[in-house]
Structure formats: structure tokens, C-alpha cells
Amino acid sequence: MWSGTTDDGPWNGGLERPALRSLVPQPLTGAVVLDAGCGSGAQCEWLADQGAKPIGVDLSPRMVEQAARRCGRQGEFLVADLAEPLPLDADSCDGVTCSLALHYLRDWTVPLRSFASVLRPGGWVVLSLDHPFAPPLEAQQGGYFDTELVADTWRKADVEVTQRFWRRPLAACVDAFADAGFVVERVVEARPSAEALRRWPRELGREATVPSFIVYRLRLP
């Protein structure tokens, strides 16, 4: 149920994932791509369908099991904490995708250095985050320039979900990328397509004019 409501739901399937995938360099045939925070494997499955060789890592053993089952022999999967150095060889990947995972960490030093380490020269990272210009959440105490742990609650199917993540200003994000050796190559601010608006007018109507997610493509010089 969780994977289904995520993969074919308005926020991930209809808004964030199309934006993230629009920045993934093509073609992917033969490319080794790390999916950091792979969840139940939707992004790994998409990467494999594009001809890539995905490596999925996630903190949750159950999610890793689901991802491995979903992708069969088309990928490699392991349990790993992005807050710790990743157990992967240096210069072993052509690219990294990271979908709505990095903002769960206060300190990005270790994960971004891990991404830089596993990438071959000229490698890329495409990652999505909560948009720094998104409207303040109900319980948010600080202002735009504060880095603050915030909480958001919504319903997914019949389950109420509360997620806690870090909001930080745009400059803090770009500084962290630069400190890890990356150059920001492209930015996409997720907006729903006409088809997505037809399917989910109530959920995504506001997203046509108000930002929720931002996607960066980073490159190692």
C-alpha cells in the first residue's frame, strides 16, 4: 500500500519524480548510478528501465528488501546510513540520484563527500529537496534564513504520517554543494504537468504557482 500510494500519488509520482528525472543525464545505457535513499525501489526500477545499473542504498532494511524484490537481478542493494560514509568503492559510479532524502539530515558534509568519492571524474548528482521558498509550516518557529527542524503531517491512504526534516535557506544548500566540490549545473522547480493537474486537481492545484520541491543537478568539475 505504501509504495503504491507513493509511486502513483500526486506528490511523488505526479510532482517530484518527473522533475527529478528531467535532470538525469541521458543516455543511461551502461551507466552505474547510485540511488541514495532508494526507498522501495521506484527510482532504481526507472534507472534500470533506462539501461543503467542501479545501486540502491537505504537506512530501512524493509525498504531495501522491497527494492531488491522489485528490481530482481537488475540492481545491487544494501542497507546504509547516509549520515555515515558509504561502503562503496571510490570512482565506482557515473551518477547519483537522491530523491527527498538529504533534507532529513542536519549535516550534509558526510553524504555529499560520499557522493563525490564514489563518482568518477565528471560525474553528476541529481537530488531533490523541500523547496526553501515553500510556505512556512504551521509549527515552524524560525524565519527563512534559519536552519530548522520542521514537521509536516499528511494522510497517505488511511495512514496519518508525520515527517520531520530540515529546512535551510538557498545559500546554505549551495554552500554545502560547493564545499563538497560540486558545481550547480541545473535547477528545476517542480510544477505539475497538465495531466497531473487533471488527475489530482485538489492536491496539486496550488503547486502550479507555489513551490514545494526543488531539484538540483550537480557536477564534479
**Main β sheet profile:** 7 strands, mixed
Overall average residue pLDDT? 94
Distance linking N and C termini: 42 Å
Summed up, the helix count is: 8
Helix-strand pattern: HHEHEHEEHEEEHEHHE
Structure, explained:
By secondary structure, the protein is α/β, with parallel strands linked by helices. Helices cover 30% and strands 30% of the residues. It has a seven-stranded mixed β-sheet with strand order 3-2-1-4-5-9-8, sandwiched between helices. A two-stranded antiparallel ribbon has the order 6-7. Strand 6 and strand 7 form a beta hairpin. It is globular and about 45 Å long. The protein starts with a helix and ends with a strand. The model has no long low-confidence stretch (mean pLDDT 94).
In short:
With 221 residues, the chain is of the alpha/beta class. It has helices spanning 2-7, 12-22, 42-49, 61-71, 109-118, 170-179, 194-199, 201-204, and strands at 32-36, 53-58, 76-79, 93-99, 119-130, 148-156, 159-167, 183-189, 213-219.
